[in-house]
Amino acid sequence: MLEFIDEFANYLVVNLLNMSLSSPVGSSVQFFIADVIKILLLLMIMVFVISYVRSYFPPERTKKILEKYMGVQGNIFASLLGIVTPFCSCSSIPLFIGFIEAGIPLGVTFSFLITSPIVNEAAFAILLATFGWEVALLYTVSGVVIGVLGGLLIGKLKMEKYVEEYVYEIRRRRPAKIKELTFKNRVEFAKQNTMDIIKRVWVYLIIGIGIGAVIHGYLPPESYLIQLLGPENPFALIVATIVAVPIYSNALGTIPIAEALIGKGVPIGTALAFMMATTALSLPEAILLKKVIKPELIATFFGITSVAIILTGLMFNILFA
């Protein structure tokens, strides 16, 4: 089906718009049309499926599940639950705060916070459309591993003293009653959630694809940006990760840009490191976290996650060289 979409985009560009696919503008327009159709189609399917699964894990149930598990099991469950929860780092923070208030170990809460924005149904759908099953699955597994190892390390460092005192002083509230949903309720929830997510992210999506289309059609391989992130620069992974921190976006807006960069010769691991850092590390996230944790812990979180992302990018570059 994805090949058919590419052919359909080619037909529109050549026969209806009278553009050459070899020209910069024709190449850009073809990239834009094909990616918009592919990404929106797979996005709706994946978001609906995962939203149905998400209906079984409201915040109250998520807290109860995490309270049952300690040690490595807790980190693993937190990372896995991060897959089916909000896919923006800033929207994950309220849940993260709730976990700390509920007494869930600090390292476990960070496993959730790290994985949640990196791995989600939206990112998987776009990676699947763009790079295929192998990259999409490996990216998902990598995101979970980063969350588990990052949370374990933060837990071992015993950094509870860097959580603001008022968080621990908040009384543990009586757990809210979990409402059991029927099959019809869950389907309706999935439909509504799919529409809500599409409404929230379509602008990021269009902007990201538009930037990717311009890079695809107009940015020459010898340009400074491509050389900076290219295989000849031994520090490209570090640069990609650091540059991404001031940028606040989600995976939807960055994957098309990563796709275009890869098409220009940037190694896949470097492009994915940029994407991971953009979604998992951002200045707005740091500002929100500062309300509940101290700068020392924020710096540790950013440092551990950055190193993990760089190593993951290196793995992708080696495997897909």
Note down, in words, how this protein is organized.
Belongs to the UPF0718 family. Its main location: membrane. It is found in: Cell membrane. It holds the Pfam family ArsP_1. It is built from 16 helices and no strands. The radius of gyration is 20 Å and the shape is globular. The chain has one domain (20-170, 180-319). The longest helix has 36 residues, at 183-218. Helix 5 packs antiparallel against helix 6 (106-118), helix 6 packs antiparallel against helix 8 and helix 8 runs antiparallel to helix 16 (295-319). It has 321 residues and is mainly alpha-helical. The chain has helices at 2-16, 24-54, 59-68, 71-83, 89-101, 106-118, 121-131, 133-156, 165-169, 183-218, 224-229, 236-244, 251-263, 268-280, 283-289, 295-319.
Overall, the morphology is globular
What's the total helix number?
A: 16
C-alpha termini separation: 27 Å
- In which range does the helix fraction lie? over 70%
Number of strands: 0
What is the beta-strand fraction? under 5%
SSE pattern: HHHHHHHHHHHHHHHH
Number of structural units classed as domains = 1
In round numbers, the mean pLDDT is 82
Low-confidence stretches: none
Radius of gyration: 20 Å
Largest sheet: none
What structural class do the secondary elements suggest?
Answer: mainly alpha
Subcellular location: Cell membrane
InterPro entries: DUF318, UPF0718_permease
Family: Belongs to the UPF0718 family.
Protein name: Permease
